[in-house]
């Protein structure tokens, strides 16, 4: 009888430990996701500041710059320093092309804000990145799509956010 009682207690202990370990893994994943989300939000704000400040003109001159130069047509869907040409009609969106992320701007690259922490609380595994894509005109204003990508502490969790901006 005592042996059965001891076996029952052991099974209960193992079950409790398994549940505790699972909850810890879930809370860590949630923390990593939240860090990645905050990182992407910061990159989105940084990209908007970059675009609105106009510090990189003529890159963001608008429709005349993007479409009236014949040589630009050959670069549809390409990115340089975070500035992207829209894809050809029916083409893959620029943010879905992995190679374009190697040419994306990083957080603070043009706005000179301090880098995000790489260790300690709120640390990110890789600097957040963004792309700014000219998507057309609305009246006399140019429309841009900003795509930002943030990563969690171990770079496994990735969050991508988008925003459309008129300038």
Question: Can you describe this structure in just a few lines?
Answer:
It contains 4 helices and 6 strands, in the order H-H-H-E-E-H-E-E-E-E. With 167 residues, the chain is of the alpha+beta class.
What does this structure look like?
- Strands 1, 2, 3, 4, 5 and 6 form a six-stranded mixed beta sheet that branches.
- Helices cover 39% and strands 22% of the residues.
- It has one domain.
- It is elongated.
- Strand 1 and strand 2 form a beta hairpin.
- By secondary structure, it is an alpha+beta fold.
| Helical coverage, percent range | 25-40%
Domains (count): 1
Q: Strand share of the residues?
A: 15-25%
Question: Helix count, per DSSP?
Answer: 4
Mean pLDDT: 79
The termini sit apart by: 79 Å
How would the blueprint of this fold be written?
Layout: H1 2-53, H2 63-67, H3 70-73, E1 79-80, E2 83-84, H4 98-101, E3 105-106, E4 129-138, E5 141-151, E6 158-166
Parallel strand pairs: 2-4
Antiparallel strand pairs: 1-2, 3-4, 4-5, 5-6
Q: Main attributes?
A:
167 residues, alpha+beta
């Amino acid at each position: 009888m005592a042996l059965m009682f001891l076996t029952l207690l052991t099974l209960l202990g193992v079950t409790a430990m398994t549940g505790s370990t699972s909850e810890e893994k879930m809370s860590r994943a949630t923390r990593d996701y939240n860090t990645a989300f905050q990182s992407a939000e910061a990159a989105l704000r940084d990209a908007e500041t970059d675009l609105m400040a106009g510090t990189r003109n003529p890159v963001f001159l608008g429709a005349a710059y993007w479409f009236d130069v014949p040589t630009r047509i050959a670069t549809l869907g390409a990115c340089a320093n975070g500035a992207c040409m829209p894809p050809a009609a029916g083409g893959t969106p620029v943010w879905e092309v992995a190679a374009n992320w190697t040419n994306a701007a990083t957080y603070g690259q043009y706005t000179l804000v301090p880098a995000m922490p790489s260790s300690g609380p709120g640390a990110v595994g890789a600097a957040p990145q963004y792309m700014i894509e000219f998507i057309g005109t609305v009246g006399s204003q140019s429309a841009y799509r900003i795509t930002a990508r943030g990563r969690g502490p171990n770079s496994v969790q990735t969050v991508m956010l988008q925003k459309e901006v008129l300038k």
